[in-house]
Structure formats: C-alpha cells, structure tokens
Amino acid sequence: MERARTRAPYKERRKQMVDILHRVGIENATPAEVYGALTTIEGLAGWWTDDTKGTPEPGGVVEFRFPPGGFDMEVVEQRPSEHVAWKVVDGPEEWVGTTIDWHLRQDGDYTVVMFGHRGWKEPVEFMHHCSTKWATYLMSLKSLVETGVGAPAPRDVHVAFPD
C-alpha cells in the first residue's frame, strides 16, 4: 500500500541571513602589514575614519565615528597575520549584531584580503549602499598599505547622499 504524501497548503520560506563579501589583493605587502592596519588605532584611522578610538584587542571595543554617525565594534578574535573579527555592538539597527571579518593570506607578491560583513537580516537598500562603501574603504586600506596614504572619512569617496 502506497503512503499518501501530505503537504502544507503553503511552502514556508526560511529566512536566510545575507552577507557583504569582497576580495582585495594588496601588492608587495605581507599579511603582517595588513594585519597591523586592521588591529591598531593608527592603522584603522589611516584607512576607515580619522575619528577612531578604543581598545583594539580581543574583548575591547573600537569606536568609529563618521559625519552622519558611527559604529562600535567588539573585537572578537585576532590571529596575527591571519584573521580579525568584530561584532557590531552599537550603530544603525541594520548593523547591530552583524559580524565583520578579514581573512589574510599570502599569494605571491600579494596579500589577499577576504572580507565579510555577515549576518544582515535582509538585503535592504542600506545594505547595498554599505557594500559599495566597504569596497571604497577596502581600496583605501589597499592604498594605505601599498603607498602609506589611505582615504579615510572624511576624505573618503562619496557614493551617495547621505553617505
């Protein structure tokens, strides 16, 4: 006797978190040099925003301020020359609870940076804007490490109003 299949009258959609992902190669740089730009106040202020302060070690919180607002990041993990991870603990509602990480590896003359801003609840328009802004800031990180000069806020590339 064949068993009858029962189906729910509707298919329940499972919510899936979405991520911002980027890959950047930084030429003639070691992972240690890139790691330094991600784990010191001076390094972070050199590529993301001039207004950076806090404790950039695991368990500490780093505060990043921009003309329209800011973010507070708890430093979750650091593995020298390999990995940096933060959790957003304050800022825009869409950011709070998301995580940001960088994986670093040497590939010939390049340090490859695999970047992720993970755990967005949904791909709202603000997420699209933030993805573009992250790309500009990752290019600022690349410039800082390759040339010694980045383009942190407020001297960053403006992609939309308000930025």
What is the radius of gyration computed over CA atoms, rounded to a whole number of angstroms?
A: 19 Å
Sheet with most strands: strand arrangement? 1-7-6-5-4-3-2
CATH topology of the domain at 18-59 and 78-147: Alpha-D-Glucose-1,6-Bisphosphate, Chain A, domain 4
Q: What structural class do helix, strand and pairing data support?
A: alpha+beta
| CATH fourth-tier homologous superfamily of the domain at 18-59 and 78-147 | START domain
| Top CATH class of the domain at 18-59 and 78-147 | Alpha Beta
CATH architecture of the domain at 18-59 and 78-147: 2-Layer Sandwich
Largest sheet: 7 strands, antiparallel
Fraction of residues in helix: 10-25%
Poorly predicted tracts of residues: 7-13
Summarize the structure.
24% of the residues lie in helices and 36% in strands. It has 3 helices and 7 strands, in the order βααββββββα.
Describe it.
This protein is of the alpha+beta class and 163 residues long. It has a domain at 18-59 and 78-147: 2-Layer Sandwich (Alpha-D-Glucose-1,6-Bisphosphate, Chain A, domain 4). It contains three helices and seven strands. Helix 1 crosses helix 2 (41-47). It is globular and about 40 Å long. The termini are far apart.
